[in-house]
Fold this protein.
Amino acid sequence: MKSTHVNSPLPGPKGKALLDKWHQFEADVVGFQAPVVWDTAKGCVVTDVDGNQYLDWTCGVLVTNVGHCHPHLVNAIKKAADRLLNNYECANVERIEAAERLVKALPKHLNRCFFLSTGSETTEGAHRLMKRKTGKYEVISFHGGFHGRTSAAASMGGMPSPKKGYGPTIPGVIRVPYPNPYRDPNGWCENFDKYFDFLEEMVAANSTGSLAGCIVEPYEGAAGFIFPPKGWLKRLEEWVHAKGLLLTVDEVQASYGRTGKMWAIEHEDIKADILTIGKAIGCGMPVSAVAATADVFACLNKGEMSSTLGGNPLASAAVSAVLDIYEKEPLVENSAKMGAYMKGRLQEAAQRCPYLGDVRGMGLVMGLEFVKDKKTKVPAPELIKPLITDCANHGLLIGSVGMYGNVIRVAPPLCITKAEADESLAIMEGALQRLKL
Ligand SMILES: Cc1ncc(COP(=O)(O)O)c(C=O)c1O
């Protein structure tokens, strides 16, 4: 049986009335989305206020990994809400349980965590930890990196939009290129020596001698799902540690099985000193965490890392419930298996579409990069809105990212079935056939 059903063109009548009302009251500053007002969602299927049903390749934005409104998670949140909603920094049963569960699920070398509410807060926390632990202030970060929109996060990021018009950024950030196999004019993806020689040069030219650490995404999400070549992250880890710096790996979106392993750093056994975690940790509840060793956290005095809502019982109950689901359901395995299947089908579709220049990814996180011409690789951001709209009109929700705004993200819930994958792929394949510059 089909999961999708849309009375196009969108928006439907109830959706249109609600969207008009929304823009009268809430500032209309969010990015472009299909004109759909979400009403309910279960697993991989979203229903809008007009009763239209869609398959979801967004997970919000890589959040609802266990599927929308998983009953175990919903029940745990309801139960916790009945008991206690907030108690700030005082201990509560749910928080203690969530900390134990999270630390036991982390890569072995990390043995402490601290709960916050958003990914950006974890970036700020990691930045503060790197500075306090080393007593230094400079950080190496990457072109195309995205770590959030708060001050240090935007400053360390290498995407234009969080920074443009908001200067000055914080001092002490040395931004260096991130290897991009699809756009690699210097041949750095084949020859890491060249890459690391350049890194040395950048540091020699820009550092005041106060390097504290390095922050990196295991793949660059917002920049367009750019996956570095195999071995590069390991080499970076070795370089960072050889210099006596701390390595923060931002797994706000890459963790919880998204890449086909629970933690993206497991693919190359990266010994991150600090791991930042968000999005799928609560699968819809606002919760995030900084993970590190007890030794790294020991640099902070009591009260130095704190947040009004961090570790609240509701969010903490979600952390434990999500981990229960990962223990019971083969989500990580399904991510690897269905990811490989979907990538294969999308790569075949790319051969038939003159504008789909690259299909890349690991597990259930993939980027579809659109170009005007496959030889010149000139970005084609103008294709993105029509594609999002066409897919929605046929029952598939997708979103966009990319340094040039020309990449579609493929990130369905990790519970996606073969039938749902096939149905959603057929919608995408049809939309690609209709796509015109
Ligand atoms: C890699 C990464 N880090 C940090 C953030 C910021 O998270 P939040 O929006 O929860 O503040 C994001 C958000 O998309 C992200 O993708």
Notes: Residues 331-352 form the longest helix (22 residues).
